[in-house]
Specification:
502 residues, mainly alpha, 3-stranded mixed sheet, 64% helix
Length: 502
């Protein structure tokens, strides 16, 4: 076998192990009985150590050196680049640190579920302190190997090549723009006709049926995936076995439906990755900002549009046996584009959502750097919410306990949400300019043109290109926040422009 063939075979086996971890983690978050938590934590820790041992196998270094001299095509060269990236990062970590971090995250995640329900940050604090301590160690170890700060080293896991200096500039600009723009939007909304409330209750079974129907409309393949319920919506699972979740509120169906469509955007990316290299690093999703762009493109750009809601309105009426002015497309559009200051990130509208992310980004950076004590997090969270969003959470459940990311070890992830929102606006703008059938298709429930464009320009590329190169190839320019701002102004700033023209 050539050196490249040895690498390819080795990482295909590592991928199979990762797929097993993915399904066990999904089960932990959805169906596992509470009494199995300890055993599951041990199993996951062992599998993660085995996976770490595979991707840090000493032979990989020799294979990489030898493969660099072989004649390889573009995909093989890109795969070599991605393997080397993974190898460099993972060899920075000793196996005992990987095992300790996995166990600590499992314990912390289970403690978070109880603490969140009881709005008791103090109950989570000792578990989260251990997670944070280990994440600092991981960041320092990777940072030393990569020549990065600990936070940038953690960020690099989710956003390869991403740097906090660039994010600081983007987010500071948005933090200056959003408060004033939010005020403007609230004034615009106040001048519009008031909508009648959508009267429930909305049975969870009916919400699920509607969600499944809309998943099929946008292109989800149920032969390679499924929909379930969890405390925190997510997309997980394994290659060709994509598991998404949502949560239901029988007094408000709109949140669960958009949550389903959001996670379906993630799932479509997973289902569209190149099959011939799906078990190789080059076949993986490019970065979390690109992944988040696919969920936010589907939910925010496409499914909160007038076109989609015109199509979906009769399906919503049929699902719940409703009728009347509140269920007309224009009224539903006002519901789905309503802007209001709120406490919960996952329920936030498109205008205020970036403020939630900016807050978390600033706090996790300070915590990793040691500039803030974890015990001070609830107070710092409340202060940040007041400054950025003009609201103060009444308790920790609506404050710093609402997200699973930190308890489960996801430090450095949060900024990718707003980077993804900017990327989503840029990709959707380019797609609609490239194919005039996309918006008319959405208005008829035909997502074929949009999905075809995404398949060709994003999904099928896997990790062939770096993030900036992928976005430039698809849209003609690197990430440009002005496209996102222009989208917000068109949709929310009173222009009522139904086109996608710049």
């Amino acid at each position: 076998m050539s050196a490249y063939s040895k690498l390819s075979s080795h990482f295909a086996r590592a991928s199979a192990l990762s797929n097993g971890i993915g399904i066990l983690q999904w089960d932990s978050d959805t169906m596992m009985p509470k009494g199995a938590a300890g055993t599951r934590a041990e199993s996951l820790a062992l599998l993660r150590v085995l996976n770490h041992e595979m991707v840090t196998d000493p032979r990989i270094g020799d294979w990489l050196s030898a493969a660099a001299t072989e004649e390889l095509g573009p995909w093989e060269q890109a795969n070599l680049r991605e393997i080397e990236r993974q190898y460099t990062i993972q060899t920075a970590l000793p196996a005992d640190l990987v095992e300790a971090a996995s166990k600590a995250s499992s314990r912390s995640e289970m403690a978070w579920r109880k603490a969140r329900a009881e709005a008791d940050f103090g109950a989570l604090l000792p578990y989260l302190e251990e997670v944070l301590r280990l994440q600092r160690e991981i960041g320092a170890a990777k940072g030393e190997k990569l020549g990065l700060s600990p936070y940038d080293a953690l960020l690099n896991d989710y956003e390869p090549g991403g740097r906090s200096a660039r994010i600081d500039a983007l987010f500071d600009d948005l933090a200056q723009f959003l408060p004033g723009f939010t005020e403007e939007v609230l004034e615009v909304q106040a001048r519009r006709p008031a909508s009648e409330p959508l009267q429930g209750p909305f049975a969870a079974e009916a919400q699920r049926a509607l969600g499944v129907e809309m998943m099929k409309v946008v292109g989800f393949d149920f032969d390679r995936g499924r929909l379930d319920v969890s405390a925190h919506p997510f997309c997980g699972g394994a290659d060709n076995d994509v598991r998404i979740t949502t949560r239901y509120d029988e007094s408000d169906f709109s949140r669960a439906l958009m949550g389903v469509l959001h996670e379906t955007g993630h799932a479509l990316y997973e289902q569209g990755r190149p099959q011939d290299v799906i078990h190789q690093p080059v076949g993986q999703a490019r970065s979390m900002s690109v992944h988040e762009s696919q969920s936010l493109l589907m939910e925010m750009q496409a499914c909160r549009s007038r076109e989609f809601l015109t199509f979906a309105a009769p399906h919503m009426r049929a699902a719940f046996g409703k009728n009347g002015p509140a269920w007309e497309p224009d009224a539903l559009w006002r519901v789905y584009t309503k802007v209001e200051r709120g406490f919960i990130r996952v329920d936030a509208d498109e205008v205020t959502y970036p403020a939630h992310v900016i807050l978390r980004y600033r706090l996790e950076k300070a915590l990793i750097a040691g500039d803030m004590k974890l015990a001070d997090l609830p107070g710092a969270w409340a202060e940040g919410m007041k400054a950025l969003l003009g609201v103060t959470p009444p308790d920790d459940r609506l404050g710093c306990l609402q997200d699973i990311h930190w308890p489960s070890g996801g430090w450095g992830y949060f900024p990718t949400y707003t980077l993804g929102a900017m990327t989503a606006a840029q990709l959707f703008h380019a797609a609609c300019q490239s194919d005039g059938d996309i918006l008319p298709g959405i208005a008829k429930g035909n997502f074929g043109p949009l999905l075809a464009w995404l398949r060709a320009n994003v999904h099928s590329k896997g990790s062939l290109m770096e993030t900036d190169a992928l976005l430039t190839a698809a849209t003609g320019r690197p990430l440009d926040a002005s496209v996102f701002k222009a989208h917000l102004r068109r949709r929310y700033g009173g222009e009522m422009d139904r086109s996608i023209a710049a």
